[in-house]
């Protein structure tokens, strides 16, 4: 398996008249969904991707373009990459590693 | 209901010999779990909290202290706050608002 | 000297008709300027504060409120804290520590 | 002039024995310095780049690789992009736009 990273992408449009940005996020999520080689998870605070670093950055860049194609003139995008190369990590394994240590 | 924010907290210990930080995150998660007035969700990229702004910042500060109590000498903490005051928002409502717009 | 942290604060108003947010940032900067016990530096990507953790979080919370007092209905605020307790660190010492290692 | 973005890059190595990361940051800064088509500024909280989006992301990816080439096994990298397309923006113009609004 090719080395994978886990990354969180947040795309924020500025200068939209409305406080609601869910339709922009939905179009960004479409891009993640269409990428069959990359896992994704939508959370309340962003979209988490899991896949090869190059691909994740390609998708992040496509997601960043989304609001511009919908008429927005300024976009703030945050990409948080967690790249671990000493052992495989997935979105699930990271969460379960924490839960294993949690007091019951 | 008091006004609520949604926030993501990431606590990163530096100068630990190991690349694994899950046991630190688990102790941070304990703090979120013990706060009965704040909802929480653990993701692969952080802990999402939902509650009054003051409380969320209090908990974030407690979570930030965790690695120091375990001997760490430097901690990087990121707090991302989404504070919407025109209508109620929850972790669930934000995700479902996006999903409503996603192509099926 | 009380222990100090270095933190970066970004306050982003959503649902403003204009793409320009500099007047909101200016009011946030006023708060930093009035805090005589906290150092500040404005950069192109946020406001860096240096001071005791409690004070920095108090100021961050005040800065977060600014756009609401100006009529904004949704604000995204990011607080990045660098808290080093093995030796004193300042905004200047961090930059000069890097420059000392840079190839000339 | 080609469209430019302003972006902040933070590269954080995990599992280093030392709390000091300035020599890693210095090698990242070397990459920014060698890119003649991209402006850069080192701050206490990251490296700000200004240039075409594609180039900035290329450099961010190179900077992300730096700690791995120095033996680190896990790297957290954050890329914050501010992409404004209604009018030109530079690191300097953003700061001076804020200062113009600040109370004297």
Short description:
Chain A starts with a strand and ends with a helix. Chain A contains 3 helices and 4 strands, in the order E-H-E-E-H-E-H. The first copy, chain A, has helices spanning 22-34, 53-69, 91-101, and strands at residues 5-14, 39-43, 46-51, 74-84.
Description:
4 copies of one chain form a homotetramer. Chain A is an alpha+beta fold and 104 residues long. Chain A has one domain: Alpha-Beta Plaits (2-Layer Sandwich), CATH 3.30.70. Chain A is 39% helix and 31% strand. Chain A is built from 3 helices and 4 strands; from the N terminus they run E-H-E-E-H-E-H. In chain A, strands 2-3-1-4 form a 4-stranded antiparallel beta sheet, covered by helices on one side. In chain A, helix 1 packs antiparallel against helix 2. The longest helix of chain A has 17 residues. At the C-D interface, strand 1, helix 1, strand 2, strand 3 and strand 4 of C face strand 1, helix 1, strand 2, strand 3 and strand 4 of D.
**Unreliable spans of chain A:** none
Write down the overall geometry of chain A: globular
Q: What structural category arises from helix and sheet content of chain A?
A: alpha+beta
Indicate the percent of residues in helices of chain A.
25-40%
For the record, the CATH architecture of chain A stands as 2-Layer Sandwich
Radius of gyration of chain A: 15 Å
Give helix and strand order of chain A, one letter per element, not per position: EHEEHEH
Largest interface: C-D, 38 and 38 residues
User: Average pLDDT value of chain A?
Assistant: 95
> How many domains, in number, for the residues of chain A?
1
CATH class of chain A: Alpha Beta
Q: Span between N and C termini of chain A?
A: 35 Å
Oligomeric organization of the protein chains = homotetramer
Could you tell me the CATH topology label of chain A: Alpha-Beta Plaits
Strand order of the largest sheet of chain A: 2-3-1-4
Number of helices of chain A: 3
How many beta-strand segments of chain A? Answer: 4
């Amino acid at each position: 398996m090719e080395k994978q990273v886990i990354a969180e992408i947040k795309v924020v449009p500025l200068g939209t008249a409305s406080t609601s940005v869910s339709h922009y996020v939905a179009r960004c999520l479409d891009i993640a969904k269409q990428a069959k080689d990359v896992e994704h998870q939508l959370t309340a605070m962003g979209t988490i991707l899991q896949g090869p670093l190059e691909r994740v950055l390609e998708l992040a860049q496509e997601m960043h373009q989304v609001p511009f194609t919908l008429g927005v003139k300024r976009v703030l995008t945050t990409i948080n990459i967690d790249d671990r190369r000493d052992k495989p990590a997935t979105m699930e394994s990271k969460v379960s590693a924490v839960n294993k240590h949690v007091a019951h």
